[in-house]
Specification:
The chain is of the alpha/beta class. It is built from 19 helices and 23 strands. Helix 6 crosses helix 10, helix 11 packs parallel to helix 12 and helix 12 crosses helix 17.
């Protein structure tokens, strides 16, 4: 029997998405049109539809973008999933219960999902789902099976104020939908909802701050949408810069630390193995689970604040040992002579091969990836997979955990890298912008790029921009690397990241950009409406100096069959 997770009486034509979709970065936040250049349904609109997809994927910001679509009148009428899903479900819950913009959410079994997918129109009531000649009774998800502590009940009773009460109501509703047995304490939170992707983000944050919301555990903040101290001097329009900075200020008012980085694992105080944390921002979640061995599900925007206000999260997903095991074993054929571009490409490909489950990667045991290689791997993986983590044999701390008994097998070959390289390199050879720092550049990456630019200067027609966190900026200022980069013509911008950047900080005249980020290579065509070139950090340095992208792939890819004669 289908589960009714968010109740609303709606009807509309069915839009079947062949793959999961990241609503942030994959959907136009005003029209609801799918803009993800790599998605099979690119160009179609979610607006007014009963949208079916196996589950969502990608950014935790999707919940806030969905709320923005609801405010704009371009949201889907309903979301129908085949598997567990939290990010868009939360956005629909907030839209429906707090702001009276109804979006129904259902979860169907695989067989019922396939039957509904053959229909063209659906009607959803509080008790039934109807489509053509088909009819299903709906079971509302209830919280009776959720064990609450006295502390949890005190929050629900309003003992800690209205904002905390509302936060606990949201947490328990989603916990019940996830089948969580109880809640767990978390030691820290990372807020993703401080990105100004639409006015909905400020509306929510301001409402919670005005209701007296205050964080109860140490809370850091993601990259925001403007350079907080300098956006006016940079020429950012008041209509965007002011609400974007006000959004950041609302979270700081509630007690969050203005760290403004999408890479909180670069901060001095890192989570430790086995520590229950609550991070949003997909790349950070994957890095925390995979590389650090900490524990966090991929918390959606809005849920991050709810957990920060209570210190409690649903004990579900990868908080539980049994849910951290690999369900797909992937053997990697590693080409000879790889460079640092291998890692983001691998992450993107692995996400395609394991879009809905934790993989175990084998074949990399003889390699020695740096922390920055793993950062790039995790970030790119998060663009194509809904999973919150992976295991890498011989490299990551939980890789010896036995896979599930039903784990299947797959292989990644040189052909896959050749195809990925072609997909990432659709722009012309002439490049106007070199975009570095998605996720935020580390101090070590700044040193490497400064070394690559030593004795050279950026081409007059090429803007070369590094985005990074405030902590990293302090480090490279003190050790002289910032001065070296600026002497070479590199612009350094704190607080924002490429996935939240806007004109004029993003050069308006740029037509083709180059990046070493698999994450940004995936999202940039839709977010920036620019063509993209991709390559290693060394290739990005050469392009910054010459204005021209390499005309051929690197040698470790060029020998692959797909590129013969390219």
């Amino acid at each position: 029997m289908p589960d009714l997770i968010v109740a609303a009486e709606v009807e509309g034509p069915i839009l079947l998405c062949d793959e999961g979709l990241s609503v942030w970065g994959g959907v136009d936040p005003l029209s609801g049109r799918i803009i993800d250049a790599h998605h099979p349904q690119q160009g179609q609109s979610l607006a007014g539809h009963v949208v079916m997809m196996p589950t969502s994927r990608g950014s935790c910001t999707g919940s806030g973008v969905l709320l923005g679509l609801a405010f704009a009148g371009t949201a889907p009428k309903a979301l129908v999933f085949r598997e567990g899903e939290d990010i868009l479900t939360l956005g629909a819950l907030v839209a429906t219960r707090l702001f009276e913009r109804p979006i129904a959410v259902l979860r169907l079994s695989a067989s019922d999902y396939d039957r509904l997918a053959r229909e063209s129109h659906a009607v959803i009531t509080g008790t039934h789902l109807r489509a053509g000649d088909l009819e299903w009774p709906l079971t509302s998800v209830a919280s009776e099976g959720l064990t609450l502590s006295d502390v949890d009940r005190a929050f629900l009773a309003g003992d800690h104020g209205e904002a905390a009460q509302l936060a606990m109501e949201i947490i328990t509703t989603l916990a019940a939908a996830q089948g969580a047995p109880s809640l767990t304490d978390v030691t820290r939170v990372h807020i993703d909802g401080c990105i100004y992707a639409s006015p909905a983000f400020l509306t929510f944050a301001r409402a919670m701050a005005d209701k007296g919301g205050r964080v109860r555990v140490p809370t850091t903040m993601n990259a925001i949408s403007v350079d907080h101290a300098n956006w006016r001097a940079q020429g950012v329009a008041e209509s965007f810069g002011l609400p974007a900075s006000q959004l950041a200020d609302a979270y700081v008012e509630m007690g969050a630390r203005p760290s403004f980085t999408c890479a909180p694992y670069l901060l001095e105080d890192k989570p430790s193995a086995g520590e229950d944390i609550a991070w949003a921002e997909s790349n950070a979640v994957i890095y925390a689970n995979t590389v650090l061995g900490a524990r966090t599900v991929k918390h959606a925007d809005f849920m991050d604040l709810c957990i920060a206000l209570t210190g409690r999260a649903a004990r579900s997903g990868v908080y539980l040992d049994q849910n951290r095991a690999a369900r797909r074993i992937i053997d990697i054929d590693v080409p000879e002579g790889i460079d640092d571009a291998f890692w983001p490409m691998l992450g993107w490909i692995v996400g395609q091969v394991a879009p809905d489950r934790i993989p175990l990667l084998r074949g990399l045991e003889g390699l020695h990836p740096s922390d920055d290689d793993l950062k790039a791997l995790c970030a790119a993986y998060g663009t194509t997979s809904a999973s919150p983590m992976m295991h890498i044999k011989g490299i990551t701390p939980e890789a010896d955990m036995p896979p599930t008994p039903d784990a299947d097998h797959a292989r990644i070959t040189a052909q896959d890298f050749a195809q990925a390289w072609q997909g990432f390199n659709q722009g012309a050879d002439k490049v106007d912008l070199v975009a570095l720092g998605s996720p935020h550049f580390s101090a070590a990456e700044c040193v490497v790029f400064a070394d690559l630019m030593e004795g050279h200067h950026t081409h007059a027609d090429v803007a070369t921009i590094i985005t990074l966190g405030r902590g990293t900026l302090v480090t490279i200022t003190a050790n002289g690397v910032k001065a070296r980069l600026e002497a070479a013509g590199v612009t350094i911008v704190p607080d924002i990241c490429w996935c939240s950047i806007s004109e004029p900080v993003f050069p308006p005249t740029a037509e083709v950009l180059m990046t070493n980020s698999g994450k940004y290579a995936h999202y940039a065509p839709g977010l920036s409406n620019r063509a993209v070139r991709f390559g290693s950090l060394a290739q990005c340095a050469l392009t910054a100096q010459s204005g021209l992208a390499p005309t051929t792939p690197p040698p470790w890819i060029a020998a692959a069959p797909a590129l013969v004669g390219h």
